[in-house]
Specification:
binds succinic acid; binds fe (iii) ion; 29% helix; 8 helices; globular; 311 residues; alpha+beta; Jelly Rolls
Length: 311
């Protein structure tokens, strides 16, 4: 199996990169590598370290922050403590944006910053439904937020104060995942995307691309034989380290670790250096047709039906 990790030794969130490094990073990222900065630490002040406790989340597994409207969710912390945690997450969001701005100038102006999350619960032994079980290999996609082909880039920082790594399994390359599972995926039932949108289960109309990505995600997670036997490597991301990866492309599973920050970015396929490496283009080659067509987006209100369907 080829090496999957491209190491970068920068320690500063505002580091600048030579043109050669930028090109190499872009190339590797789009190929499905994890770009690992083992010494790029997201530093917390002594006061902020009080947030390093699983008790800051209620029933949810993550604290979630929206930099666009500065709203924080998923925490039981209120008032002053809640706003301080929000500011901490805002700082992480800013750092990751600066990092990608300097590392991947080709994407400039096209990256859209999504949600920021803080993950204070130990991954190993956490009880969830199979669909939400991220200890199983999968590619990322969102049941209620259709991406219509857009890419998901995520930046993760392990801030574990005891020096424990975050451990992932990384599986076979995306084209191999598709070659294996595509023949088993069912086409969407006529009218379903419109219905799901009308019922506000999805925030926009689900494209065929989203349909196939969700099926891929589910089929991978449901197939225990595959989970066990597919070629895979274990990666241990060190505490004090940061990594960048296309999680819609790289088959991954988080098996252990506690205390991590994560920032999601979206990118249109057209902004890529090599769009042919995107899940959209790979799936379209397999299907022999366009998988995103004439789709409009509208406002979305959270629906109880979505919660029920995707628990
Ligand atoms: C995931 O995206 O599947 C989880 C990654 C992590 O929490 O380390
Ligand atoms: Fe994931």
């Amino acid at each position: 199996m080829p090496p999957l990790v491209y190491e970068a030794l920068e320690t500063d969130w505002k580091a600048s990169f030579s043109e050669e490094r930028q090109k190499e990073s872009l190339h590797r990222l789009e190929e499905g590598f994890v770009i690992l900065f083992p010494r790029l630490n997201f530093t917390l002040s002594e006061e902020e370290k009080e947030f390093l406790s699983p008790h800051v989340v209620g029933k949810s597994k993550n604290v979630c922050y929206n930099i666009a409207n500065r709203q924080i969710g998923g925490t039981i912390l209120k008032e002053n403590a809640g706003s301080r945690l929000g500011r901490l997450m805002h700082r992480f969001a800013d750092h990751t944006r600066h990092l990608l701005h300097n590392l991947l100038p080709k994407y400039q102006g096209c990256l859209k910053q999504g949600r920021t999350s803080f993950r204070p619960v130990e991954v190993a032994g956490r009880v969830t439904s199979w669909r939400k079980d991220d200890t199983r290999l999968h590619v990322d996609c969102f049941p209620s937020t259709p991406l219509q082909g857009k890419r998901i880039i995520r930046v993760f920082s392990n801030v574990n104060p005891e020096g424990c790594p975050r451990s992932w399994r990384v599986g076979e390359p995306f084209p191999d995942v598709v070659a294996r599972f595509f023949p088993k995926l069912k086409a969407p039932i006529f009218g379903t995307p419109t219905l799901l949108h009308l019922l506000r289960v999805t925030k926009a109309k689900r494209s065929e691309y989203d349909h196939y990505m969700l099926q891929l995600h589910d089929q991978m997670k449901q197939d225990l034989e595959y989970q066990k036997n597919v070629q895979q490597s274990t990666l241990h991301f060190p505490a004090g380290g940061t990594w960048v990866v296309y999680t819609d492309q790289v088959s991954h599973a988080a098996t252990a670790g506690q205390f991590q920050f994560e920032q999601t970015f979206y990118l249109p396929v057209s902004a890529m250096e090599r769009p042919e490496t995107s899940p959209l283009k790979i799936l379209e080659r397999m299907a022999g047709r366009d998988l995103v067509r004439g789709i409009a987006t509208t406002r979305y209100v959270e629906s109880p039906i979505a919660k029920f369907l995707y628990k």
